[in-house]
User: Which sequence fits this backbone?
């Protein structure tokens, strides 16, 4: 037997139960991974609360992890027992061991620790697709990144600065502002004490930014659109404050013929070749030192409920790792 977090009904953090479960066995095309570290992400909250529908009930939450291959199913040829692997965008990581499709994992370079791998796969690959594919950031680009001191924010702001962008980030405290500036932000805006739309217009000389990366949702709407230049892009990739209400698409024309997209990592890495390319670019920028992954909180995996309370209470910064 091994242990895992199980959720039988959606709701608050207390619906997560630490239970003994059968030791997993791989089927064809699958492996069993013994986790060394598991990542914590806001998408885990969405599944726990029912905002995102879990594929089965009950279910094991979690979308990111790193560990060792301990069993290999029929037809798996490019992985073997003992390989170090990491993955993201596949639900079920809040477990000591789990079965996962072999084509959904990548080998973790020896130079990157299990904890770093678990802390960066979902957040780092999210930063990759946002900056390299959703809107291709390059020298001269000006971006606004909401929640700049969060897990994705600290990675993305470093990466955007490395690409030559001017980076503006919103934060919720002076301490988070200092942290964001140390991780690539040229300018920070404390949304609790400043009007972020007015401040962005001031910082850009009234022009607005090229792209807004928004994981906040409701509380940043419609201000995110008001920060954009004409023909700018609003990339709404999360909704930590709640979903954006239904909107009249005519508003996009009124505000400067704007573009809006609602991307998810699941789609961007659905093809094996895209997963490998995304992960490899992330490994490269981390190995080069251009992007540093900092783990600011750790919790025992069995205490995932406490980690969720702190995450939802905005008491965390950067990456958080759960340790089996």
Assistant:
């Amino acid at each position: 037997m091994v242990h895992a977090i199980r959720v039988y009904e959606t709701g608050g953090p207390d619906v997560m139960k630490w239970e003994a479960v059968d030791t997993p066995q791989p089927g064809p095309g699958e492996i069993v991974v013994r986790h060394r570290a598991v990542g914590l992400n806001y998408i885990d909250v969405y599944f726990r609360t029912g905002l995102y529908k879990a594929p089965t009930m009950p279910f094991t939450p979690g979308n990111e992890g790193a560990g060792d291959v301990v069993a290999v199913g029929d037809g798996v040829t490019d992985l073997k027992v003992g390989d170090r692997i990491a993955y993201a965008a596949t639900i079920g990581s809040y477990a000591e061991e789990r079965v996962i499709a072999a084509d959904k994992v990548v080998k973790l370079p020896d130079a990157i620790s299990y904890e770093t791998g678990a802390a960066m796969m979902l957040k780092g690959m999210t930063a990759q697709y946002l900056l390299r594919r959703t809107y291709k950031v390059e020298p001269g680009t000006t971006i606004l990144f909401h929640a700049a001191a969060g897990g994705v924010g600290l990675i993305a702001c470093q990466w955007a600065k490395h690409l030559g962008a001017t980076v503006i980030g919103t934060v919720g405290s002076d301490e988070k502002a200092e942290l964001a500036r140390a991780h690539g932000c040229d300018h920070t805006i404390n949304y609790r004490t400043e009007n972020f739309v007015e401040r962005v217009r001031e910082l850009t000389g009234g022009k607005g930014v090229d792209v807004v990366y928004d994981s906040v949702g409701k509380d940043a709407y419609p201000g995110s659109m008001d920060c954009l230049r004409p023909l700018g892009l609003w990339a709404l990739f999360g909704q930590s404050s709640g979903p954006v209400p239904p909107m009249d698409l005519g508003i996009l024309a009124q505000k400067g013929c704007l573009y809006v997209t609602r991307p998810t990592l699941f789609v961007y890495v659905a093809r094996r070749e895209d997963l490998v390319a995304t992960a490899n670019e992330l490994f490269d920028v981390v190995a080069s030192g251009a992007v540093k992954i900092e783990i600011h909180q750790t919790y025992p995996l069995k205490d995932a409920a406490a980690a969720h309370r702190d995450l939802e209470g905005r008491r965390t910064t950067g990456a958080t790792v759960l340790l089996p």
